[in-house]
Amino acid sequence: MVKEVRTRFAPSPTGDLHVGNIRTALFDWAYARHTGGKLIFRIEDTDRERVTDEYIAAAIETLKWLGITWDEGPEVGGPHGPYLQSQRLDIYAHWAKKFLDNGDAYNCYCSTEELEARREAQRAANLAPGYDGACRDLSADHIANYVAQGRKPVLRMRMPDGETKFTDVIRGEVIFDHKFVPDFVLARADGSPLYTLAVAVDDVLMKITHVLRGEDLLSSTPRQIRVYQAMGVAPEDFPVFAHLPFVMGQDNTKLSKRNGEVSVAWYREQGFLPEAICNYLALLGWSPGDDRENISMKELTELFTVDRVNSSPARFDMKKLEAINGDKIRALTIDDFLERAFHLFLKQASSLALTMKRR
Ligand code: GLU
């Protein structure tokens, strides 16, 4: 039986969604629509100091404005909810305890100062810095001693010797030698989960079949695979990974506030049309096999396949986006143009009125 495709967009909104986030969302959406599958929208908000309700609301609004629809997630619900990680803490605690009980994970009592000192020594000896396994096999006496000192442990996953090998649809075969993947923290001393635990547990429980996401997360994949294994997931049921290449600025370094405008909200305020942003981002690192510059959302869903995503970084070109935006504006009917321009005009006028009032 062919499994239904289930992709997910899982941002941690610590600000407005940026161009890179949206390209990821767009590809996940296009792939789900192309295959007749589902897009799951999950908010990764375990860090509630940085991810606020306002940013979450803004992320939802931005996706809606762009026409990126989801089948499960905030406002829509679904059988695998809740879709905000902050509402799933008992689920992560359940799995953390399970991993501890069956020996996949262990309590680590090392203090931050001790870890830092040992990392410093590793650096001085030219060794790759990382956890050295000091608490892997503590004796009962040793543990009792730490507990008596009032130390509160974090939970670490035991990373076996060997390697993790998987096929990334965009990158081909990827191998991580575990020498460079030390035992990692799953939960903090207060029991709160770290990204690697929450993301992997959710991808399994939400039955995600395809993880299309940014290349910056490639190095976390072996840790996530380790969590799947500890959960008892069979290798054939692991999601397929596709790590999308970076979006670069004009100076050929990763696009950021420093070398370009990244916030999608900013483009909206400037009067860029959602269809122009989607058109431009769709063709940033992906092509349907010809050199078209114009693509509609409908065509994107018809033509999108992951194997046509380029593996090399794509350069964000503001001039090109402006040109596409101009084409899309010229293609609007007069009524549509007036309606959209009117909204923009109202917004500009009210902010102008506010500035004048302040003067
Ligand atoms: N929440 C993560 C982030 O915004 C992405 C998670 C993922 O796609 O695996 O960086």
What does this structure look like?
- The chain has helices at residues 19-35, 53-66, 89-101, 112-124, 140-148, 195-205, 221-230, 264-270, 274-282, 297-303, 318-330, 334-358, and strands at 6-9, 38-41, 105-108, 154-157, 163-168, 172-177, 184-187, 210-214, 240-244, 247-248, 314-315.
- It is an alpha/beta fold and 359 residues long.
- It has two domains: 6-85 and 246-358, HUPs (Rossmann fold); 88-244, Rossmann fold.
- The strands form five sheets. A three-stranded antiparallel β-sheet has the order 3-4-7. The protein has a two-stranded parallel sheet with strand order 1-2.
- Helix 7 links the parallel strand 8 and strand 9 (240-244).
- Helix 6 (195-205) crosses helix 7 and helix 9 crosses helix 11.
- The chain is globular and about 80 Å long.
- 33% of the residues are buried.
- The model has no long low-confidence stretch (mean pLDDT 95).
- The structure holds glutamic acid (GLU).
- Glutamic acid binds at residues 10-12, 44, 199, 213, 217.
- Glutamic acid binds next to loops.
